[in-house]
Write a structure and sequence with these properties.
10 helices; three-stranded parallel beta sheet; single chain; TIM Barrel; 9 strands; alpha/beta; about 50% helix
Length: about 220
């Protein structure tokens, strides 16, 4: 039941912050600002030095057990998980979902074994079908900047059961188009953090996060 609950929460929240940085401390600071801006799903990529340390720190602070029934609650996951070994290490560090840049059947099997949501990257209808057959609940359409929102409605013609989350190239200008086209969620990376990293003002991430959440809610007709 926990896996289904987390999948539903990711869909309900609709926006995933994909965080990369120079250190675990950088990413923790970014995540804190994103959460303060109301993005409640945080993906820490394994390209970050000591990424597992960042995941553990955030999970201890923001997980349901750490902050039950609190506005501080957030879902902390791992990204750029290339293999099952990486996924398992991240799960043990506190990751509640796993994201990969590609479809790795062994990683999917590992996550299914431990009932942890897995969102592998896909580029073709064939990969999406394979992911569905492996039991994947949400497929990451990646890199999203190679596609347009109309791609989702085209894919859903033959595969209406596929849940797609574009990542890469999603920004404030096109987020609404992706959601209205049928994306169950979107992944936001550099557009969320680039300005803050350049200026050293991480509060910009909080303000940017609030803008993304507002855009998502408007696209869903929630505000």
């Amino acid at each position: 039941m926990k896996k289904l609950k987390i999948v539903q929460q990711i869909v309900n929240e609709g926006v995933v912050a994909v965080l990369r940085g120079k250190s675990a401390e950088d990413v923790v600071a970014m995540a804190e600002q994103a959460i303060a801006g109301d993005i409640k799903v945080i993906e820490v990529t394994m390209t970050v030095p000591f990424a597992l340390q960042a995941i553990e720190t955030l999970a201890k602070k923001y997980s349901a057990s750490a902050a039950p029934d609190s506005d501080r609650y957030a879902i902390i996951g791992v990204g750029t998980a290339l293999d099952p070994e990486t996924a398992r290490a991240a799960i043990l560090a506190g990751a509640e979902f796993v994201v990969g840049p590609s479809l790795n059947p062994a990683t999917v099997a590992l996550c299914n074994r431990y009932r942890v949501p897995i969102m592998p990257g896909v580029m073709t209808v064939k990969e999406i079908q394979e992911a569905l057959e492996l039991g994947v609940d949400i497929c990451k359409l990646f890199p999203g900047n190679l596609y347009s929102p109309s791609t989702i409605s085209a894919i859903k013609g033959p595969l209406p059961q596929a849940n797609l989350m574009p990542t890469g190239g999603v920004n404030l200008a096109n987020l609404g188009d992706w959601i209205r086209a049928g994306a169950v969620a979107v992944g936001i990376g550099s557009d969320l953090t680039n300005e803050a990293v350049k200026t050293g003002d991480y509060e910009l991430i909080r303000r940017r996060s609030a803008e993304y959440i507002d855009a998502y809610r408007k696209a869903k007709g929630l505000s």
